[in-house]
Design goal:
With 162 residues, the chain is an alpha/beta fold. It has one domain (23-160). It is 22% helix and 27% strand. It has three helices and eight strands. The chain has helices spanning 61-73, 75-78, 142-160, and strands at residues 23-27, 33-38, 46-51, 54-58, 101-105, 111-116, 127-132, 135-139. The strands form two sheets. It has a four-stranded mixed sheet with strand order 1-8-7-6, with helices on one face. A four-stranded mixed sheet has the order 2-3-4-5, covered by helices on one side. Helix 1 runs antiparallel to helix 3. It is globular, with a radius of gyration of 18 Å. The N and C termini lie far apart (55 Å).
């Protein structure tokens, strides 16, 4: 039997006791994506997107524009990647299930991209490291880059009407 510690009653002035500093996803192949727009053109507009094992919420067209441009600017580095790599680079473990991460992108978004060569000592494949705030994608092939890039384009298009 598990024991769960949970404070009793209201916690006025409660301080934060944990935070996620970063999440890294390694992707290869045709990454599953879904993009759904809600209440576009109203004060409650929002696009919800599933990008592999990440659920992203975006409501600001400026944020969508910056992230889309960030992915577009990585096209030359993406072309250094093979068209398709083996799913074994995803390092699946029997009996485990993927974790889904949810993130709301608001305000200034911290973006970075870099091509990372393969490192046999750490069993890390060559990949394109795409960072959007605390979310980091290790994009291992052009198929996965294209799937994610297309999803960011759709998010941008839904929020900006372009």
């Amino acid at each position: 039997m598990a024991t769960v510690h949970q404070p009793l009653g209201e916690q006025p002035g409660r301080i934060m006791t944990s935070t996620v500093l970063g999440v890294t996803m390694r992707v290869a192949g045709a990454v599953r994506t879904e993009v759904h727009a809600y209440a576009i053109g109203t004060g409650e507009q929002q696009v919800t997107a599933r990008l592999g094992d990440v659920l992203v919420y975006v409501s600001d067209p400026t944020v969508a524009d910056r992230v889309r441009a960030h992915w577009d600017s990585a096209i030359l580095a993406a072309h250094k990647l093979p068209s398709r790599v083996s799913q074994t680079w995803l390092n699946p473990k029997p009996g485990t299930y993927p974790l889904t991460v949810a993130a709301r992108l608001v305000g200034p978004v911290d973006l970075a991209a870099a091509y990372v060569p393969a490192d046999r000592t750490t069993h890390t494949p060559a990949h394109l490291r795409m960072r959007v705030n605390q979310l980091v994608w290790q994009v291992c092939d052009r198929d996965s880059w294209r799937a994610l890039s297309d999803a960011w384009f759709q998010i941008h298009r839904d929020l900006t009407g372009q």
